Amino acid sequence: MRIGFLLALTVACGETPPPTFPAGRWIDLTHSFGPDTIYWPTAKPFTRKAEFKGITARGYFYSSYWFEASEHGGTHVDAPIHFAEGQRSLAEIPVDQLIGPGLVISVIQRAAADRDYQVTIDDITAWEAREGRIPDGAIVLINTGFHRYWPNRLKYMGTNETGPDAVAKLHFPGLRPSAARWLVDNRRIGAIGLDTPSIDYGQSTNFESHQILFKAQIPAFENVANLDALPATGAHIFALPMKIAGGSGGPVRIVAFIPE
User: Fold this and answer.
1) What is the pTM (predicted TM-score) of this model?
2) Does the domain made of 23-44+71-259 have the CATH classification 3.50.30.50?
3) Where do the domains of the chain lie?
4) pLDDT band at residue 22, thresholds of 50, 70 and 90?
């Protein structure tokens, strides 16, 4: 009622009414952080402990916690500095690279048939043949179907083990380096993400897709959730991370808005 009164008042005064947000729905693309959050086998997992929880001496309830974890785990963003010396840290990524038109390239069937599948140039160009050219500033999301396995580490990562020896046992899909290079050379995307622990597939040893993308200042979102809920085009992505000065990555709350 108050909003309607203010709109009427601005019109009566000859002023242009403020724009209204379009109708639509929001989709949360973020896994919650907790005891079962999946981290890289060598990374420190998420820990949360209560500093105080209960009734204070003055009679009111109060709770406060501290948490600790690696930058790279759960739904998070890799900043370019993660694999490219001298490139942007987490706090330096421009906001307009983290907000933009979203598109989803689905490789669910291929990834189901091959846990080590790597998204190819052909996958990208086939998507464009159906949906049109990837627009400048787009946030490209790859749906491998693996978000459905969260938080089962064995199904999601290929191993339950942790520690350095577990890295060689990782099996999950990723982006082929040649496809990363093609995107850098031929399109002007803002960011890229997928629903697995790494933009490089599980058996990668040199993390070439990371290197290629990050040298071009393109950040990557990993462990993205709920990609089945998004259309191939038409969503708008908002991916705002914790603003860590000098950070190589950090937790991110990713949401998509789908207008009606």
Assistant:
1) 0.91
2) yes
3) 23-44+71-259
4) confident
